[in-house]
Specification:
Strands 1-2-3 form a three-stranded antiparallel β-sheet. The chain has helices at about 1-25, 65-95, and strands spanning about 30-35, 40-45, 50-55. Helix 1 runs antiparallel to helix 2. The chain is built from two helices and three strands; from the N terminus they run αβββα. The radius of gyration is 19 Å and the shape is rod-shaped. It is an alpha+beta fold and about 110 residues long. A hairpin with a 4-residue loop joins strand 1 and strand 2 (about 40-45).
Length: about 110
């Protein structure tokens, strides 16, 4: 019975740490740019976009397609960086072990 209580206690500790991690990731940011800095995207550590900045020189009515491509590239890179931040933080929580299941809400 003592082992079961220890397992429950460990589970509660991990759950508390994951909850804390969710808060921390929401406060951290990653930034990415494309087109030599013409489009810059900032996302939080959970991958939610927080800001998009576009250099006014890119906004040309005759080349909207290029702007769309630059925004898409910057967004994808920011989300990739957010995923890497998440993965790094989860490795810290799990002691480097790969969890066998996804954690809801992260």
């Amino acid at each position: 019975m003592n082992n079961f209580q220890q397992i429950l206690q460990m589970g509660q500790q991990v759950q508390a740490r994951i909850s804390q991690l969710q808060t921390e990731l929401g406060q951290k940011t990653v930034t990415s740019s494309s087109g030599g800095g013409m489009v810059t995207v900032t996302a939080d550590g959970r991958g939610k976009l927080r800001a998009i900045k576009i250099d006014p020189t890119v906004v040309q009515a005759d080349d909207v397609e290029m702007l769309e491509d630059l925004v898409l590239a910057a967004v994808n890179e920011a989300q990739n960086r957010a995923q890497q931040l998440y993965d790094d933080e989860m490795r810290k929580v799990s002691g480097g072990l790969s969890l066998p299941f996804p954690i809801p809400g992260l």
